[in-house]
Amino acid sequence: MGNPASLWSERADMAEAAILSRHLKPVWVLPATALGVVGWPATRRERFFLTWHYWWQAHLIDCAVDAANRAPTIARRKRVGTLVRSHRLRNLTGWTNRYYDDMAWLALALERATRVQDNAEARGGLGPLEQKLYTAWDPAVGGGLPWRVGADFYNAPANGPAGIALARLGRYERAREIADWIDRTLRDPETGLIFDGIHLPAGTLERPIYSYCQGVVLGLETELAVHTRDDGHLDRVHRLLDAVEDNLTTESVVRGGSGGDGGLFNGILIRYLAQVALMLPGEEHEQLADRRTAARIVKESAAAAWANRLDVEGEPLFGHDWTTSAKLPGGSAGAGGVTSNGAVTSSRVPERDLSVQLSGWMLMEAAHMVTAAGL
Fold this sequence. Notes:
The chain has helices at residues 4-22, 44-47, 54-70, 74-91, 100-117, 120-135, 156-168, 172-185, 211-227, 231-248, 265-279, 285-307, 354-372; strands spanning 24-25, 35-36, 153-155, 197-199, 204-206, 249-250, 253-254, 310-312, 315-317. With 375 residues, the chain is mainly α.
């Protein structure tokens, strides 16, 4: 097979090229701007960024940072800055919005753009986002961040990425409080997996199991394991990783998947499995095995997604479920919509959605990262 890292780098290049050619467009035809059109083929509404999905664009920035780290070029470095600047432009009201999960995803992307790409635009956005996330902690209901300003729903997709962002910004005590709250409040005692969220103060659990909830908790506990001397975080990673392998994979391939917002869920799990593989500290048998397990899930999932892709004009189109063959979307009919609670539904053919293709790109970058590290 030659050099595995080189192979995955080539595939990541192709995934990047597919996003750039199909989805990346100037915002309102303004020069030196670019965001991801949320569907391909696109509706008129999507082409003009009347529909744009704040948190999808945050993951586009994250993927652009991945590519710029993997194979630095002037064009990639400039693209990171263009995406960051365009996100601020399209958001109209500044960097923030009313959704703490959205803001946490953007904070993660901007922190990486600042730290590893030294991007000035990103640095300007971090302050307002950090302040929003830090002050959203709600001791009146026993802790946790709400999903949205004024909401009674406190969920893993807001708390997990907020905790990771705050840890990376040096707010370790608040990050630890968030990790402890998730483990105490949202962990399923039967499977060990993380529930979606809880209504507070009522205490009503929302019990769906989403792959990205597992991913962000793995990421948060790994960050805390790196930056504290508390072995409890290593134990939580081990327990949750076992639960993910047992319940969410088949032959080490992450299964399932959908379009709309759900198109990003498996990619996010993979991003943080790669973080476990690369960053989890410790040289005991358990940590060595955990790093190997996380790397194996990344590599096997990437191999499956690549094998099941479509080639469209020489560029990959990834399936929403990496275990089955991708389908070609026909025209812009069947575009996803937005529900009353702000969630984005799947297009009729999920492969049409930018979210699905971003997950594929994340997966290729993650496979390169773990193979380049010799895992």
